[in-house]
Each structure stands twice: as structure tokens, then as C-alpha cells.
Amino acid sequence: MKGLCYMGTKGDIRLQEIPKPKILEPTDIIGKTVVTTICGSDLHVVDGALPYINETAKKSGRGVVLGHEGVVRVEEIGSAVKTVKPGDVVIVSCISSCGSCYNCKRGQTAHCLKCKDYAGWSKGCACILGAAMDGTQAEYVRVPLADSSVYKCPKGIPVESLLMLSDILPTSYELGVLDGNVTEGSTVAVVGCGPIGLSAILGAKSKNPKNIIAVDLDDSRLEVAKKLGANYTVNSGKQDVKEFISKNVKNGVDDLPGVDTAIECCGLPVTLELCERLIGVGGTIANVGVHVKPATLFIDDLWIKNFKLTGGLVNTTSTSELLEKVKRVY
Ligand SMILES: [Zn+2]
Ligand SMILES: [Zn+2]
Asked: What ligand has the least distance to the C-alpha of 107?
């Protein structure tokens, strides 16, 4: 079969012939890929920014198959798999988790202890597909810990839409909207309107905030942000975002001193630092972006604001809730 492999050195990816995966653990399934996609995270991998993944890819001799997002048709199941059977079409979650260890039981499935021996994004995190083991950008994929890591696809919904539930929708919803405490009537700034930022806007809409301000450097992305529900758009390359917000955005008070939630969707120091400037008293900076460089925390300005800073790796504990929301659209 063909698989798109990252070879372990910056920029070296190859579409090559590799062996079809086999069941290795009783909790595995083998799925035939129906649709898959790329993630911003894959770009960090290909850029050589993750030393653990470089190591895994080099050690294997033929690289590691990229990708942790996909919809697959189940072809074979391990002897312990109970929730799916051959023929089922399932969403593969970007997080592989057992559902029963200490971390899984307290909702920290991104750090499932069953994955602790894998070297993925960091030693022990549970985003192991396309990192510690072969991922979804191949004709077939072995999905570990299947019972708690895949979701059956409901009939009548395009697989391309369901594919968004692998990672992008839960990531933006859990880390941006839920951790960011987006509530009815609040004001939210979404910094970075790539796919994650646009998904954060969709997720934020479901909480009925008063204002959603979309921030990006690209006007075409801002157009899409508007279509998906942003009330205001600001091109941060052309105008000062904080000034724009205080001049133009009202929240039932005369002057808006800062937003309630600033959702960081780029993973860059400059965008996190912008979020720090944008929040008001009691505000939350919700970091969604994957950072590979340090950023400055302006604690001398922030400390008095009773602010919160949240961040992490998606637990995908909202996938079922989001699946219900998607079903209601169709
Ligand atoms: Zn992803
Ligand atoms: Zn676990």
C-alpha cells in the first residue's frame, strides 16, 4: 500500500510503498482510509521541530506515516474490541486513549497512561498517530485503543464534514471555547483565522456571545470568518487590534476595556502576546496554537486583571457532544 512518510529530517517526506499494517494488540483495529487530511501540527513534524518524532522516523528505516485525522472503514478488529465491527465507518480521533487509566478517568485523555511509553509530540502524550506510530495518511491505518478512540459515523452526513471531528472541531471547542469560558453575551476575540480559528468561531457561536472579533493578516480569511459568524474583522497588519476594539466594539457599556476571551489560534509568540494585550478584567487567554518557541508573559500588566491563561492538548472529550451538534445541521 502507499503511505506518505516523514523520514526524520526537515522537509523530507515521501509517498512510498510500505507494508499494510497488522493487528498487533487486541485493542487495535485496521481501517481502510476513506478520507484524511493535513493538520497544522503535521507541518511542525515536517519542519523537524519535534525531536521525538525525528527519532522515531529515523529509527523505522522508512519513516513514519504522517497524519492523525481520518475517517476509515473498519476492516479487521482485535479480539478485545467491543464497540465497532468490520464494515463500520468510523472517525479516528487524533487522541488515542484507553478510557480507564488514572488520567483518562479524570478527563485528561490527552495524557492517557497507556500511551506513556510512546514518544509522540512529547514523551507520553496521547497524540501518537502520525508521530510515535504510523498515522492516517496511508491507504490503511492501525488504530490503537479503538474502543475509546474511534466514533461511529452517523448515516447521511458527508464524510468530509465528519472528518472535522478527528481534531479541528474538538481542539478549537475544548481549548478555545470551553477553556476560554465563552458565555452568552460575552466578547470574544479569535486571533488567527486559519481552519482552527474558523472552527473556534463556529464553536463560540454555539454559546451566543455578543461579539466575536476575528483577527488575521489575510483579508480572504477574514471574509470567511464573517460568513461563519464573526461580527467584526480586523486585519492586524493594517490596524492596531486593541485600538480597533476599544473604538468600535461595545458590550453594553460605553467603553470596552478589553475582551472577555482571547483565543490564540496560531501558536506564535506574537499572537499570544497580542491576546495578552486584548483581554480585560476577569478575561481569559485561551491558547489553542501549538508553540515551538517561548513567548513573553507580560505579567506586570496582567497580574492585576484577575486573568486566566489556559492551554493544553485536546482531550477529545467533547467529540460526542460535537457529533450531536453536527447531526442537527443535516
Ligand atoms: Zn490535527
Ligand atoms: Zn488512558
From this structure: 2
Residue 156 CB: number of other CB atoms within 10 A?
A: 7
CA of 171 to the centre of ligand 1 (A): 8
CA distances from 210 to 167, 255, 261, 288 (A): 27, 15, 12, 21
Model confidence at 279, in pLDDT bands (50, 70, 90)? very high
Instruction: Measure 167 CA to ligand 1 centroid, in angstroms.
Output: 5
Angle, vertex CA 92, rays to CA 106 and CA 55, nearest 5: 85
Nearest Cα to Cα of residue 95 among 135, 138, 155, 152: 135
User: Considering only CA atoms, which of 313, 311, 288, 317 is closest in space to residue 105?
Assistant: 317
- Please answer whether residues 109 and 120 qualify as being in contact, where contact means their C-beta atoms are separated by less than 8 angstroms: no
Cell of 46: 515536517
Give the number of other CB atoms < 10 A from CB of residue 37: 19
Q: How far is CA 196 from CA 21, 97, 169, in A?
A: 30, 22, 8
Domains assigned to the chain: 2-167+318-329 (3.90.180.10), 170-310 (3.40.50.720)
* Coil/strand/helix, residue 270: helix
Q: Which ligand is nearest to the CA of 97?
A: 2
By 3-state DSSP, what share of the chain in percent is helix, strand and coil, each rounded to 5? 30, 25, 45
In which band, very low, low, confident or very high, does the pLDDT at 121 lie, cut at 50, 70 and 90? low
37 C-alpha vs ligand 1 centroid, how far in Å? 8
How do residues 19-72 score in pLDDT, each as one tens digit? 999 999 999 999 999 999 999 889 989 999 888 889 889 999 999 999 999 999
Considering every ligand atom, which ligand is closest to the CA of 70? 1
- Phi and psi (nearest 5°) for 30? -110, 130
